[in-house]
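Propose amino acids for all 215 sites.
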C-alpha cells in the first residue's frame, strides 16, 4: 500500500508569513536604495540588498514600475491626504501652512517621503499621475493664499521643493527628535513665507522639477 504523507496544517500559514517577510524586505531595500542611489538602481541590486533571489523579487514585482509604485504608495497617499485637506480648508493661509507643517513632519517620520515626491520614473504612470495631482493641488492652495494676501507674492512651487530638499538634512537619533526638529523648521519656514512689507526681493527661483509643474 502506498504510504500517504500529510503536510502539516500550519504550512500554508508559514508560507504566507515567509512571503510577507520577503515582500517587506524587498520594499525596505527598494526604499533605501531609491533614496540613496535614485531610481536607476537595478532589480538585482535590490534583491541583493533584501537578501532574496531575483526569482523571488520578480515573482512579487514583475516589473520595476510595479516595485516603484509599491515602494512609495504610502507616501503618495499621505501626500494626497495633506493636499485634499488643504484644498478643503476655508482659510487659505491655514491650508497652505498645514501643507508645510504636515509634509515636513511626514518626512521626519518617513524619510522616503521626500524621495517619493521628488523622484520620477517614466514607466510608473500611476505614480506620475498621483504626484502631478498633488503638485497641482499645492499650486492651487498657494495661489489662494497669495490672492488672500497671506503668502508672499513671489512664492513659486520651486520654493516648496527647496524646503523639501533642505528637510532631507534633518537627521536626529530618534523619530521623536526628528519630528520636533521638523516642527521647528516648519515654523521658521512659515514665518519666512508669510506676506510682509519687511521682506526684500528673492533671488531668481531655480527650475528644480519642471516636468511636474503644471503650465
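Proposal:
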Amino acid at each position: 500500500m502506498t504510504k500517504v504523507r500529510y503536510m502539516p496544517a500550519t504550512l500554508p500559514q508559514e508560507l504566507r508569513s515567509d512571503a510577507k517577510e520577503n515582500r517587506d524586505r524587498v520594499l525596505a531595500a527598494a526604499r533605501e536604495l531609491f533614496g540613496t542611489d535614485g531610481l536607476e538602481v537595478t532589480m538585482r541590486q535590490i534583491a541583493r540588498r533584501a537578501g532574496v533571489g531575483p526569482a523571488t523579487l520578480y515573482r512579487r514585482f514583475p516589473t520595476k514600475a510595479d516595485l516603484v509604485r509599491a515602494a512609495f504608495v504610502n507616501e503618495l497617499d499621505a501626500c494626497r491626504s495633506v493636499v485634499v485637506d488643504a484644498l478643503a480648508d476655508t482659510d487659505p493661509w491655514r491650508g497652505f501652512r498645514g501643507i508645510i507643517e504636515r509634509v515636513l513632519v511626514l518626512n521626519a517620520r518617513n524619510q522616503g517621503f521626500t524621495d517619493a515626491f521628488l523622484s520620477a520614473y517614466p514607466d510608473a504612470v500611476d505614480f506620475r499621475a498621483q504626484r502631478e495631482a498633488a503638485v497641482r493641488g499645492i499650486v492651487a492652495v498657494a495661489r489662494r493664499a497669495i490672492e488672500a494676501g497671506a503668502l508672499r507674492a513671489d512664492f513659486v512651487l520651486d520654493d516648496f521643493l527647496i524646503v523639501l530638499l533642505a528637510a532631507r538634512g534633518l537627521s536626529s537619533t530618534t523619530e521623536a527628535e526628528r519630528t520636533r526638529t521638523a516642527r521647528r523648521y516648519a515654523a521658521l519656514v512659515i514665518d519666512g513665507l508669510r506676506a510682509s512689507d519687511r521682506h526684500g526681493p528673492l533671488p531668481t527661483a531655480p527650475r528644480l522639477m519642471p516636468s511636474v509643474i503644471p503650465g
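Residues 11-37 form the longest helix (27 residues). Residues 10-62 form a domain with the Arc Repressor Mutant, subunit A fold (CATH 1.10.10.60).
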